[in-house]
Amino acid sequence: MLSKRTRLAVLCAAAIAACDSVDSITGPSAPPSAASDLISVPIETEFLPGIPVLDPFAAIWADDAGVNESARGSGHFHIGTALRTFAFTAKSRSDGTTQGQFQIDNRSIPAKDHGTVTCLVVDGNQAWIGGIITHSTVPERIGLGRVWRVIDNGEGSGSSPDQVTVSDILPPETCRLRPFQPPENIEAGNIQVRDGS
Asked: Which residues are CB-neighbours of 114 under 8 A, at least 6 positions away?
């Protein structure tokens, strides 16, 4: 039986040999081995076919010129045993327009919705957001509205978890009425709300 030190040396030698056989421009000259399949995990880049995964903290959303209020975030939480993942960005500009996008992956149904934000109301650390579903794995949802509320409880490990509600199928302008929806603590992720006042 090989000692731990001998096994480690063998693994290191194998890794060095594998690196030596790689062409730095074209990639490996041979098909990937089972070991390299374990190391390279594909990163999901499409939420739905032709729709990229929304990253609300990407530089593309950093333009705050003329923005009065904003809310953005991403993360996940469980409803029962099913994981629900979300991402959104929403901005209200001084010219009265609201812009943004949202994505929701509800694994309990299962359903994935992508849409355009058309309504944003911010009050302190809370925001109500509404939008129209433009793409969905459930075709009957396309054209329907969604409304949800988020609560930004601060940054850092000493803060309480940020919160989000399950998004209801409602006309998006309902967000202006600030409907009460019981929030869920997000288990991972971040929500940022900026009140223009």
From this structure: 47, 48, 51, 54, 101, 102, 103, 133, 134, 135, 136
